[in-house]
Amino acid sequence: MTYALEIKDLKKVYKGGVKALRGIDLTVEDGDFYALLGPNGAGKSTTIGVVTSLVNKTSGKVKVFDYDIDTDLTRAKQQIGLVPQEFNFNPFETVQQIVVNQAGYYGVPRKEAMKRSEKYLKQSDLWEKRDVRARMLSGGMKRRLMIARALMHEPRLLILDEPTAGVDIELRREMWDFLRELNKSGTTIILTTHYLEEAEMLCRNIGIIRAGELIEDTSMKSLLSKLMFETFILDLDTSGKVPEITGYPSEMVDESTLHVEVERNQGINDVFEQLSQQGIKVLSMRNKSNRLEELFLKITEENEHVEEANV
Amino acid sequence: MFNLYFTALKSLAVKETNRYLRIWVQTLVPPVITTSLYFIIFGNLIGGRIGQMEGFSYMEFIVPGLIMMSVITSSYSNVSSSFFSQKFQKNIEELLIAPVPTHVIMWGFVVGGLGRSILVGTLVTTISLFFVPLQAYSWVMIIVTLLMTSILFSLAGLLNGIFAQSFDDVSIVPTFVLQPLTYLGGVFYSISMLPPFWRAVSRVNPIVYMISGFRYGFLGIIDVPILLSMGILVVFIVVLYAIDWYLIETGRGLRS
């Protein structure tokens, strides 16, 4: 099995004694689309910082495609493309200068870098803006520029730290499609995000970090199977009737909207039948909240209680 | 690996060169105006009354020092402000995550400082031709001193950029250290004119050796022996290079 990333017992203690990472063990397979989630300050960015050598680790081992960052840092770095959380390009350089320079730092000759800049700027819908200074771009364009820049040396592992923060819904969907295609073409992707729906839509495997520890490392499917119930929102045509649902906790939140909690083993067909028998039509239906969000809150809360109990 | 490092160095050098050319009004024009004023006021107006200095007109005497002054300021400021700006805007991370060794990062910035200072030196020399004819006693000494001084002050600027926490930190050293040392380094006078005590004090100032070497290249006169001038330059370059390398390699102010 080839691993894109192998982290063993990774610890980071910042000056002042803050323990950001308390011994993380994590493996990401080659070709995976992996979500790294956790609340603010959990240690996600520190983990990414160590892998990309922006943060000096205190102890532990990190290997990128089998290249140890302690002994083969140059080759390890060649495999990685990073899209950081904050905009970190020179705002006074043009879009094309930024991506071409970055390719140069990875040894891509200028002629080849110019070719690639056309490819990746077109993919990111920024080709028309290639001669525009980066500070003149909109927030969404700046995000896309960061992704295009990270792809210029065609890395095998792409790490995206909150790539869609501040990006509108339409653009976010476009970026998802782009990332899916990239992953399909063989690039391993590690994603941190606050949009849990994003992780659920894109990623096959997931790790949850909390207080510097990896508290969950599993497949998305198996994580979601832990969810015991879901809340559905039904838009109804009641024709003045008040729906009565037995066997399911439910609540009418306004004249035509019903919230129903359904356990995994129950199924929702029975709810439809009850409503139909009462002459109430279901016009549409959706999840109350993202399934992963419910799980995430549950897992992090549970972990918090365990810690409190241990104190 | 050599190809990778060479391409990376070229990219960084191009980026640095584009930077100072893009803001030429800030980087190239001021030293030209300042030294032109020095030529007019000290050389032309006051210099005429001072008379000869070691067998040359005062204007001829101060030209090498004024060129060297603009070279020192340009190389230092270029690297300190560029490095600090990249730290401030966080685009230094582009380099830190890339497979670029510390030596390449350092030389990329030094090439930027070198390019700007040579360009400024050339412009100032061209301006000086309006006042005095060009004379060169030793082109080799002119070029060697120019390159070594520029490398030395680029490395010093890099050190400033590494430690700087704010834009004030970048301007403090040139204003309160570099400028006084340059003025007291024999730009406008020969240190042989000073009383023995101040002559001894002046010899602690490294800029004395650079101006002396550079003036030797133009006029063939020296304040301190040439070998000593070159030796001092080499020692400073080696020491500054080692300090800069250590600080960047260990991530001082760059990695947490």
From TrEMBL, chain A:
One of its GO terms (molecular function) is ATP hydrolysis activity. PROSITE patterns: ABC_TRANSPORTER_1 (PS00211), ABC_TRANSPORTER_2 (PS50893). Keywords: ATP-binding, Nucleotide-binding, Transport. It comes from the Bacteria. Residues 5-236 form the ABC transporter domain. This is ABC-2 type transport system ATP-binding protein.
From TrEMBL, chain B:
It comes from Alkalibacterium subtropicum. It holds the Pfam family ABC2_membrane. Keywords: Cell membrane, Membrane, Transmembrane, Transmembrane helix, Transport. It is found in: Cell membrane; Membrane. This is Transport permease protein. GO terms for cellular component: ATP-binding cassette (ABC) transporter complex. Its main location: membrane. InterPro entries: ABC-2_transport_permease, ABC2_TM, ABC2_TM_bact-type, ABC_2_transport. Belongs to the ABC-2 integral membrane protein family. GO terms for molecular function: ABC-type transporter activity. PROSITE patterns: ABC_TM2. NCBIfam families: PRK15066.1. The chain crosses the membrane at residues 21-41, 61-84, 104-131, 137-164, 176-198, 218-247. It is a multi-pass membrane protein. Residues 22-251 form the ABC transmembrane type-2 domain.
